[in-house]
Amino acid sequence: MKKTLALIALAAPALAGTKTVVATVPAPAPAPAPIVSPWAVEVGTGYNFASKDLFKGDEDQKKVNTWGWDLTGVYKLDENNALTLRLGYAYGSRKQDDDYRFKVNNWSLMPGYRYTYALDDQWSLFAGVNVGVTNMKWRVTGEGEATDKSGWGFGYSAELGVRYAINTNWDVFAAYQFSGSTASPKYTWTDGNTFEHSVKSKAQNYHGVRIGVGYTF
Predict the structure, then answer these.
(1) In the chain, which residue ranges form alpha helices assigned H by DSSP?
(2) What is the pLDDT of residues 25-60, one digit of tens each?
(3) CB-based contact 68:88 (threshold 8 Å)
(4) Fewer beta carbons within 10 angstroms: which end of the chain, N or C?
(5) In which element (H, E) is residue 118 found?
(6) For 185-203, how does the pLDDT look when each residue is reduced to its tens digit (9 = 90+)?
(7) Could you tell me what percent of the chain has a pLDDT over 70?
């Protein structure tokens, strides 16, 4: 017993100077940021108010407004800048008097650029421009045989709008849009092989509203 107490007494000073080793656990690595796809697609619809009469030389005619749809592919370069490619179609029909009706069909394919400014996690503003090709076809129906003509031109559009993100993938948007083209199809015919007549449409432009839904892949 005396030997045991003596050993404890001798070991006590050594034990008193021993440092306690505390094992440290490394902090977990931060989770990687979610991968956001640069690709998106939009489906839009809208109504366009014509700025001009359809044909030259007729002061009594009514302007032909159009409604239509578009499919737009979007490639986001970064959080602000994006490239777009838009396929659009618009149709309009308006009765001029008791005998005649004017109809308009517009097809367009236009690449473009868009800038987006985020207000918060859900709301953002955007502005974009598109330029490309447009095919315009007009048709006049009424007394006698219907007359129609189509032609190609340079197409353009500019828009300013607001977007609301429903979740990571889906959003809805609304925008004011100014659009138009240089297409001006001309129809020519001969009266009794003697007199040549022609009717030519004006190059049209429109003020419109565009609304739709977008999906990010």
Answers:
(1) 2-16
(2) 566 656 555 567 899 999 999 999 999 999 987 778
(3) yes
(4) N
(5) strand 101-118
(6) 988 876 666 666 688 999 9
(7) 79
How far, in Å, are 1, 15, 124, 192 from residue 127 at the CA level? 93, 75, 10, 54
Give the integer Cα–Cα distance in Å for 122 and 180. 31
Question: If we measure between CA atoms, which residue out of 56, 38, 84, 97 comes closest to residue 177?
Answer: 84
Q: At 13, list the tokens.
A: 């000073």
Asked if 65 contacts 51 with a C-beta cutoff of 8 angstroms, the reply is no
Q: What is the pLDDT of residues 14-33, one digit of tens each?
A: 545 555 555 565 666 565 55
Q: Write down the residue that tokens 């300013």 correspond to.
A: 160
pLDDT value of residue 30: 64
Residue 77 gets which letter from DSSP?
S
pTM score: 0.80
Q: Are 54 and 206 in contact (CB under 8 A)?
A: no
The Cα 155–Cα 135 span in angstroms is 9
Q: Distance of alpha carbon 46 from its chain centroid, rounded?
A: 12
